[in-house]
Specification:
Blueprint lengths: L23 E4 L2 E7 L5 E4 L1 H4 L2 H4 L9 H4 L2 E2 L7 E4 L2 E3 L2 E2 L2 E5 L13 H4 L11 H12 L12 E6 L6 H4 L6 H12 L16 E5 L4 E2 H6 L5 H17 L2 E3 L7 E3 L16 E3 L5 E3 L12
The chain binds adenosine-5'-triphosphate (ATP) and magnesium ion.
The site of magnesium ion has 2 residues, from loops.
Length: 295
């Protein structure tokens, strides 16, 4: 079992502000605390994840493929995405989403959201894990018009395992575009720079968003087809307010929450909804990544 010292040899895990500067990273405007394991595994915690850092250690969900044995693969995922039961966060229960990044893989014949399909010139490339968190962060920090509940970005984990490109399905010809963007970003930071290691996996950890997806709600007769379509357009409109689009936007990516006793609030404008899946959440103007001004 790979050990991580989250205390930085102090005997207790410091609050975010107390973490030594050498462990801080800033990638595409998102701050992380980086922890390296004794065998070379690496964890990048966001400030949300750092509060739960002990619970996110790979020994709890990754080692011995626990994510497969104790978690369940999400139906409808074309990638490798798992829901993992997680208990004990301040007594409440919040499950994890474990998502293997598809960076540099060929997205195949991705269905493109018709609102942007005609004008889209940016190509379809899955975001790298750092770009995914960055664009999500951009959305989360957008003003109230754009505000959509999302899964909480907690951490990026890169296990101490090495693979051939073909084992990971990555296209070597795509690496340079990702590397260029990351290098350009990392030349500006004060912290030690971050690089991609193309022979390693990247796994994104999110907090689960309670509810069911809109397509499932429709199939169960709890939401009408018209409401499903309206909601898709409304969510896309909110993303547009912050200059973003989910290239493969679809009802399966919108999560609705049943109101207490009454089931979903059918067709009502105030239905509770949120967005999942950010691997193709990109700048609307054809840019792959919208830069967030540093604050
Ligand atoms: N937090 C959540 N709450 C409820 N359902 C979820 C949640 N996260 C994911 N799902 C369900 O799991 C499905 C698959 O997840 P996700 O979209 O991240 O996988 P994917 O491999 O990227 O799929 P796709 O290729 O369709 O984009 C979602 O479409 C949704 O139905
Ligand atoms: Mg997806």
């Amino acid at each position: 079992m790979e050990r991580y010292d989250l205390t930085f040899r102090r005997g207790f895990r410091p609050a975010w502000e107390g973490v030594p500067a050498a462990a801080h990273r800033c990638v595409f405007g998102v701050d992380y605390v980086s922890a390296r394991g004794m065998q070379g595994g690496e964890l990048f915690f966001t400030s949300y994840g750092w509060r739960l850092a002990e619970h996110l250690l790979p020994q709890h969900w990754f080692n011995d493929r626990q994510y497969r044995l104790l978690g369940r693969r999400l139906e409808g995922s074309t990638g490798a995405v798992y829901k993992f039961p997680q208990a004990g966060w301040r007594g409440d229960r919040r499950d994890l989403v474990i998502k293997f990044s598809r960076v540099a893989q060929h997205p195949g014949d991705v269905y493109i959201w018709p609102e942007v399909a005609g004008a889209w010139t940016g190509g379809t490339m899955f975001l790298s894990p750092f770009e995914e968190f960055a664009n999500l962060n951009h959305l989360r920090l957008s003003g109230p018009d754009a505000c959509i509940p999302t899964q909480l970005p907690l951490a990026i984990y890169s296990p101490p395992l090495h693979f051939h490109d073909w084992q990971l399905g990555r296209h070597v010809g795509r690496f340079s575009a990702y590397d260029r963007r990351l290098e350009a970003d990392q030349t500006e930071v004060d912290n030690p720079p971050v690089h991609y290691e193309w022979d390693r996996l990247y796994i994104l950890l999110y907090g689960w968003l309670d509810g069911v997806d809109v397509e499932e709600a429709h199939e169960n007769g709890r939401i009408s087809k018209a409401s499903m379509e309206q909601l898709s357009i409304r969510v896309d409109g909110r993303l547009a307010c912050s200059g973003l689009v989910v290239l493969d936007h679809k009802p399966r990516h919108i999560i609705v929450r049943p109101a207490a006793q009454t089931g979903l609030r059918k067709g009502r404008a105030d239905v509770l909804y949120g967005l999942v899946d950010y691997e193709l959440l990109v700048g609307r103007e054809g840019t792959v990544f919208p830069k967030r001004p540093r604050g």
